[in-house]
Write the structure tokens for this entry.
Amino acid sequence: MILTDYLRSTPDITWDIALQSGVKHGVIRLPEDDAFDPADLSQVKAVTDRFLARGITPLIVEPLPNALHDHIKTGDGLRDESIEKFIRLMANLKETTAHTVCFNFMAHYGWTRTAANLPERGGAKVTGFKLEDFEADPTVISAESMWSNYEYFIKAVIPYAEKYGIKLALHPDDPPLPSLGGVARIFTSLDAIKKGINVVKSENLGVTFCQACYYLMGENVEFAAKELADKIFFIHFRNVRGNKFDFSETFHDNGELDMARLMRVYTENGIDVPIRVDHVPTLAGETIGQAGYDALGRLFAIGYLKGIIDSYS
Ligand SMILES: [Mn+2]
């Protein structure tokens, strides 16, 4: 396994904590401001060079910049222009060290929580979701439209992903409910994920195995990992407690998934890919900044993950 951390495009404390924890590879978030143009090679290189200068080699871009992705997922009038920009982004990434893109196909609502301050061990704070607390707006998108928009996107970009050597890793819907309000969600089961990555036959189309999403789908996570083994390009190491209608995040050693056992399953099935901790608690002394992505929780989570990786290598 290749230990990574999820880092924003400009240096902050999480870069220092990653480096001090022994992380050498990055999952990077591209800038989301209007000034950043993912189709401009010099701007993309400026971001990746900033990481390299600090000793972090970017391997994965996550997610697709929202400015592009939202149009692609809803299939609106800016869709083709956005797809064209994404194709140019892939051409640019070919010139960097980041040859995988983690993307999702959640339209309108992204990953969604209804609370960011639930109590976890010792008074740490975590995010959670309770369907009855979710407040939907009037937006309606059908499952048929979502599948059609997904297929349109995949068929347009996969030939270029192959040309430029870029792997596209589909992240499941979080939470994996059939809809949020009137907006359908289509990647909420192992079967749906399999259907999605077989829309075209390509070695460049696979999955981000966000293990807690598969757990919340109600799938057997070990079975899912084995089924998808040769299609797993990237792993989100994450733990939770509850079900898709009502769950909370947890410390990585304090949820319902057996994390060490999962690592054994990955190892025994030849899954040797970049992995990052996902959704950490906010710890004592911190204020909730970006819930799930604050700094101190990573110290514990990365150390715990690193220990498990080392025990299987
Ligand atoms: Mn995830």
Q: What stands out?
A: The radius of gyration is 18 Å. DSSP finds ten helices and 15 strands in the chain. The chain has one domain: 2-311. Residues 216 and 244 are 5 Å apart (CA to CA).
